[in-house]
Structures are given as C-alpha cells and as structure tokens.
Design goal:
The structure is a homotetramer of 121-residue chains.
Chain A: H1 8-22, H2 30-45, H3 61-85, H4 89-103, H5 106-109, H6 116-119
Helix pairs in contact in A: 1-3, 2-3
Chain lengths: 121, 121, 121, 121
C-alpha cells in the first residue's frame, strides 16, 4: 500500500481497498460520510480559529503538519463520498468554476467580497 | 477556461487564474479559506440531514446535482488552501491512509466503528 | 464562581468574568466566536457520526458526558457571541419559531421532512 | 404561541409543541439534531467568513438580522437535543466553565490564545 499515489483514481482505489479490508462499507452511507467530512473540515478550521490569518509563517511546524493531515482527511472522505455517489470530482469542480465565473464576472466582482446576490444590486 | 481539467495541478492553476482575475487573494487567507471550506462542508451535509442514509436512490436528480456542486466547492477551497499552505494533497492523503492503517489494523478494526482509542481497550 | 446558574443572564455574566480575568476579549471577535462555535458544533456531531440514531440508550455513560460538555461549549460560545452582538437569544428563538410556523403550517408539513421551498410545490 | 418566552424551559416547551403539531419527532433523532445544529452553526459562520472581525459596526442591519436568526436556529436545535438527551444546559455550561477554569488558570492563560495542552509546556 506504499506506492506513490499519482491521481484521484488511484486514491479512490486505495481507499476502497482500505475500507473493504476492514468491512467498513456498512458504516459508510453517504449521510455518514458527509457528516464525517463536515467534522474533519471543522477540525481543519480549529487550529486557525484564534489566529490572525493563518499564513504559513504564523503556523508552527507541528501545527502545519496537523493541518496537512486534516486536509488529507477531508480529501479522503470527499473521494469516498464521490465514489459512493458516482461523482467525477474534477469535472464537477470545473463546472462549478464556470458557474462561478458567470455569477461573479471579473469586472464587477474585482476586489469585492460581496456575495453575487449583493453584487447585482 | 472551458478545457477539460485532467488533474489537481490543472485545477489549482485554473483556480489561481480565477482568483487573480478578481483580485480575491486579499480575502483568501488560510483562515478564511478554512472557514469557507467548513461552511461548504456543512452545506454538503444539509441535504442529508433528515434522510435515512442518503444512498443515491434516495436522492432526487435535483438534490444529486446540488450535492455534486457542494462537493465541487469543498474540493475547490481545499485545493486553494493547499496551494496557500504548500501542501501536496495526494501525498498527504496517502500518508494519512498509512497512519490510519497502523491505528486501525484490519484484524482488530474489522466490522467495528469504534475509535482507535476505544479499540485498544 | 460555583454558585448555581439560574438563567442565561447569569451565564453571560459568568462568561464575561471568565474572559475578563484571562484578558481574552482581544481574541473574541464575533468572527472568531462564530468559528469556535462551529468547531464545537462539529465536535458535538462527531460521536454520533457512525451511530444509527444516537438515542440515549445507544450512548455509553462516557459518551453521554462528552456530548453534554460539547453542548455546554456550544451554549457558552453562543452566549458570548450574543453578548458581543447585542442579541437577546430567547427573543430571537421565539421569533424564529413564529417564522417557522408560517413557513411550515402544521397541516401541510405534518409528517414531512421536506424543506418549505419543496412543500410549496 | 406568541407569549414572551422567559427562560429555557419555556423555550423547550414551545419547541415540543411545535414539533408535536407537525409529527416531526420521527426525524428528530439525536444524530439528526446534532447534524442540523452543526449545519446551522456553519450558516451562522458564513456571513463572517470574509469579514475582518465581524464587529457589530461592520455588519449591515440586514446581515445582523440574518445572524440573529441563525443564532436562534442554533439555540433551538440545542434545546431540542438537550431535551432528547436529558441534559440540563445551564448546569452543563456552569460545570464546563469550572473545568475550563482549571485547565486555564487566570495567571498562566492571561492574554494567551494557546490551547491548554500547549500552555502546560
């Protein structure tokens, strides 16, 4: 299991094997995976909560490593959920960027953190 | 911007361009990206919250599409955060699987949803 | 600090004293408090994530205690945020119930977990 | 249902009536309530995510109202979960403050946002 992972398909395959070896499919309903992903995302937020910005210089090596593994957890649950719901993550991400490009045209959204519903006003 | 994205590097490059065109780097501190990721993860959980399991058959086509885009949002913020913190997501995911394999050996964890701290007892 | 707390005002006062003694107001911006509240809410969700329903019978005494303290954390951050934003929590909760009563009339919403935007269809 | 709510017990009673009238107890397992609470906490975080601090002066009247109702949602789910798990929220909150007072003694924690595990070093 130690060969280098090159892409999301290989990561999915490795996660499938990991889960199958432990007979964990029974717990991995989409609802439970979505809960777990949400919990991991909050654990990723936790080390940032009292920091000013969390820029890399503000993080100790220990905290950076912890954050890196929380990001890994988020990705792993996301890939398992995508596998279960038959979602192509890269295609979805690409489509979402196109949709956001329409909601936030560069000339009106430049330099603004307003939501698109506010921008239109 | 409509060419097919083949891998996480290309997704990162596309996100960099999207953000730069809107001059949004100023808002994208790691702390803010981690908050946004956490909010998107909760939006992904939201359609599942009253469902039994959220298996694909339980989802309307409309809900499946909404979930797919929420997954895209999570991935996009995760890739932007990784870019900002200099994290190789696939390498981190792979390492985390190795660590979990040690914490949850197949023979003791099989069929159990206990946390590793409980398994050891 | 050990006298029994009788209501939300007394809880707020106790939290104010706790924070002032530690000079923590500087970290307690509304944004940071909202992040912390969100992190605690996820920690509250965590022990439920692989359970069927999390009914009280399904929880060990240890888990029940852990959940109870996570609920306390959520309430404490909520009260501190309300104090900072000048929100009367009970009045807001009451108003929200009235609003939900309009969005979800008993006769149409009975026995349904559909969102009000779906109910109207 | 429009009489003023004076305390958490009255809020609990009002929520019980609201849920019973809609026959929603079936959806309100502790697990589902914890998910819903977590989703609402993220919705509360959402308007703050790109702000500097979210101090009351930085919020439009509209945003303040939206935040106020998200806080109401968090409280309402918290009270329903406490009812289901037989938790006295004020007693738990009080105990948690005592525990935190031990983990974060005023003289060592003053002016520091370090976690207690870090403070001890």
């Amino acid at each position: 299991m130690s060969a280098k992972i090159q892409n999301l398909q290989q990561l999915r395959d490795q996660l499938r094997a990991f889960v199958a070896e432990r007979d964990w499919q029974q717990f991995h309903t989409p609802k439970n995976l979505a809960s777990a992903l949400s919990v991991e995302a909050a654990e990723l937020l936790e080390p940032f909560q009292w920091l000013k910005t969390g820029e890399i210089e503000e993080l100790s090596a220990e905290t950076h490593t912890a954050i890196r593994y929380e990001m890994a957890d988020v990705l792993n649950y996301l890939v398992m959920l995508a596998d279960r719901l038959d979602v192509d993550l890269l295609a979805a991400a690409n489509e979402k960027i196109q949709l956001n490009a329409q909601k936030y045209p560069a000339q009106t959204a430049r330099g603004s953190a307003l939501k698109y519903t506010e921008l239109k006003k």
